[in-house]
Design brief:
Length: 180
């Protein structure tokens, strides 16, 4: 085993440093039987970004598919679940955009690469949870009193619970966000 330490001329995590890591990896992987590894801060960032990009391409569609199937079974429909899923995905996009504007205004133009995936997991999972709660109640009420009255009654009965749960959740995340 041999370890060779190298210090790049470019700043760590700069585009030039990432390109250099790629060039070094290409060069050492071309040596037969070398089984060479390239590590360090920049290499870690390159690997983390590649893993996160893969997760975004694989995990998010799988989550959406499972959620769509659950909603379709629950509601015994296809259009309604698509609309509900779309509303939750739209709220995720709005939250991600608002977070990007806030972090940028606070002087943090870049955040952890895992933030979009974790945000998606939490916001979609919780958003769908509340949606399922509301739609189950709406389905029961619509069967009893008709469409318009049923939906209004379901909103009146579940709206306070969903709003309270959202406030408690936001306070919990705000508390967690203040930890070092």
């Amino acid at each position: 085993w041999v370890q060779i330490d190298a210090v790049l001329d470019d700043a760590a995590d700069s585009p030039q440093a990432r390109e250099t890591v790629g060039l070094i990896r290409d060069a050492v992987h071309a040596i037969p039987g070398a089984d060479a590894l390239v590590g360090g801060t920049t290499a870690f960032t390159v690997d983390a970004e590649a893993a996160t990009a893969r997760d975004l391409r694989v995990v998010i569609p799988l989550i959406l598919l499972v959620v769509l199937l659950i909603l379709a079974v629950l509601l015994r429909a296809l259009v309604g679940p698509l609309v509900l899923l779309g509303s939750v995905v739209l709220s995720f996009g709005a939250a991600l955009g608002a977070a990007a504007l806030l972090f940028n205004a606070l002087g943090y133009p870049r955040v952890d690469q895992g933030l979009p995936l974790f945000g998606f997991l939490f916001l979609v999972a919780l958003g769908i949870d509340y949606t399922i709660f509301l739609m189950t109640r709406a389905k029961e009420e619509v069967a009893r009193v008709g469409h318009r009255q049923g939906v209004l009654r379901a909103l009146a009965v579940t709206g306070g619970v969903i709003t309270s749960a959202g406030i408690v959740l936001a306070a919990t995340f705000a508390g967690l966000g203040s930890l070092p």
